Structure to design on (333 residues):
């Protein structure tokens, strides 16, 4: 079966190991399977739900494209574009916001986390952001959406919106309810400073994450300083439930080495954390430094990156406009 893949990443700078292991690594595997039609979107309209410096935003859009390519996405095989260049996304988001219910959005935990205590001051865009995400996905008849675990609830909302639209307008299966592609393990990489918090670009301390543009010394230093507990390395998977930092570091190691958590545990059981951390740093350096070097090389090739976005947005625009035209007809416009 041909899979139609769509996913997005916000161009907010500091793409990190969580983005890579939770999502982008998966994009690369999907891109490499010739059966799949893949679209990877730099979601700049999502980025402006919190304030952005326009110059920085422009730089970050190109850096996100450079990161996709440096990680192994081939722009000849997959469509890469930025959301703002395909106006159907904004328009479909409006139409779908008239289908989605307030009650559904009120349940979104990510809004509660991002808006924090002062919800009154959050932008309307931050609140309605999952509807724009649904528009992104539904415009392309997407069948599968690779994301990290934090986007699961937004995908459920997308499915609800598709179903309600199809029911309301009596157009069975017109909007395709997509399947999430969330890895069973390693779909939520946690902060290096607190194993109960997600690794995130908005976390103040840079020591909490490995950025995909970090240098070797930074990676080694961050792993050295990563929080652990006073016990030696765990000897069973059960122990991990009480030891969030150990669980996270073992998960990162296992994911990078394509090993099961059980295998990693038996490899390091009873050893000191320092020994494990040396090996973890080494594998991170081996995997991340080539990506980091490639990003730094590619961001200098502005014309090349601009051209990828231009060609990608032309292709995406054609597909999205066709779907939008059909939506107009259904709506009675
Ligand atoms: P964003 O930009 O926050 O994150 C991009 C991708 O990285 C994953 N991710 C993580 N995975 C594991 N551990 C972590 N600590 C971690 N942090 C981030 C995210 O799950 C995501 O897959 N709303 C989305 C972007 C979006 C989108 C879409 C995704 C917009 N439209 C349509 C899929 C389909 C977001 O803000 O991702």
């Amino acid at each position: 079966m041909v899979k139609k893949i769509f996913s997005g990443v916000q161009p907010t700078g500091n793409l990190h190991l969580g983005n890579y292991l939770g999502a982008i690594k998966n994009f690369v595997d999907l891109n490499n399977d010739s059966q799949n039609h893949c679209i990877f979107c730099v979601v700049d309209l999502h980025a402006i739900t919190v304030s952005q410096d326009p110059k920085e935003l422009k730089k970050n859009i190109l850096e996100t494209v450079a990161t996709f390519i440096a990680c192994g996405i081939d722009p000849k095989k997959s469509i890469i574009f930025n959301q703002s260049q395909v106006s159907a996304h904004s328009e479909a988001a409006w139409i779908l916001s008239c289908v989605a219910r307030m009650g559904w959005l009120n349940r979104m935990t990510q809004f509660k986390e991002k808006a924090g205590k002062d919800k009154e001051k959050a932008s309307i865009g931050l609140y309605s952001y999952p509807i724009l995400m649904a528009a992104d996905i539904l415009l392309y008849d997407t069948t599968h959406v690779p994301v990290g675990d934090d986007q699961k609830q937004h995908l459920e909302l997308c499915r609800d919106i598709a179903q309600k639209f199809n029911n309301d307008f009596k157009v069975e299966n017109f909007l395709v309810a997509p399947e999430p592609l969330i890895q069973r393990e390693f779909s939520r990489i946690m902060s290096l400073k607190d194993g109960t918090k997600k690794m995130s670009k908005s976390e103040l301390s840079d020591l909490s994450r490995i950025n995909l543009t970090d240098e070797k010394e930074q990676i080694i230093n961050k792993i050295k300083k990563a929080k652990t507990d006073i016990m030696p390395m765990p000897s069973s998977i059960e122990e991990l439930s009480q030891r969030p930092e150990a669980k996270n570091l073992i998960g990162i190691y296992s994911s990078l080495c394509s090993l099961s958590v059980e295998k990693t545990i038996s490899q390091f059981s009873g050893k000191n954390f320092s020994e494990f951390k040396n090996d973890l740093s080494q594998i991170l350096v081996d995997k991340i430094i080539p990506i980091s070097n490639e990003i730094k090389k590619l961001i200098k090739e502005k014309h090349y990156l601009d051209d990828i976005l231009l060609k990608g947005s032309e292709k995406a625009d054609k597909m999205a406009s066709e779907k939008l035209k059909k939506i107009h007809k259904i709506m009675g416009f």
Q: What stands out?
A: The chain has a mean pLDDT of 96.
